[in-house]
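tool=predict chain=A
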Amino acid sequence: MPKYYNSTKFDRQNSAGVKDLLKKLRKYEIQIRKAINSQMMGDFHSIFKGSGLEFDDVRPYQYGDDIRTIDWNVSAKGHGTFVKTFKEEKEQTIYFILDVSASQTIGAEGSTKLDVAKEICGVLALAGAKESSQIGLICYSDVREEAVKPAKGMQQAHEVIARLIRLKPASLKTNLKKALAFALNAIKRRSVIIMISDFIDEGFYPNLKSLARRHDLVIIQIYDARETALPRLGIIPVLDKESKQTIWINTSFGDFRARLVRHHAERVDELAQFCKKHQINFLRVDTTEDYVPKLLRLFKVRNKSLKSA
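tool=predict ok
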């Protein structure tokens, strides 16, 4: 058990679950930090630092300056061309946006998409708190299920983890468009936003684009193989977890299974291409795999992009 854990912060009913999860997440956090520090020789920008810059002042344009930094409003006053200058931001705010709709409950017991999403959120919250970042949380289905205002410290990371354990969503449905709209209105300051979902929904791309423009966005898509790996069983009942309706499908009819796999692959490719176009870090995680190596690669990619920025 981590030395910093204080059981008085949580309800007795949930304290055992929090202790167990913290112990597991602490192991992952140590593994991630050791690997990053050794591979990067101590140059630990991390996933949490974002651009690390905030507006400071303006100065006259000099040959070689990036034209993207020109302040056109100041330059338009007729006293010359001026560029914006920036200073390093000492404190970063991290928001986790977590999809907690019923489609996230697919998977083996204890390893559903939602279980894995909560674990990733927990381990990154612990690591972010260690970097003195402010940590906030938004959980959404088709309504706001939970929201934790950002704050610093390990106690805040523990509070986020406890809220995730206690969470029992009021709605089964998904509405990523509404979730993103809520985030756009609620998060005013530029932040690192880590959005975790299966992204099985429609009509959310315009809001996702707006969020990427305002913030440093990381997309983590959770998936489970049983969503597409249907055996040939003839006509079987399939339960839609969000509508609670049973649909009868013929798994042996024609190319049904091939079309299902193709449709799923097209959705994944659409999301990946969108993220690439809008410079969003994108990561896919299978519920059955060890997600730590993938998180490490994500750290490395972001670290390189920050140093070259």
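The chain is about 40% helix and 25% strand. The first strand starts at residue 53 and ends at 60.
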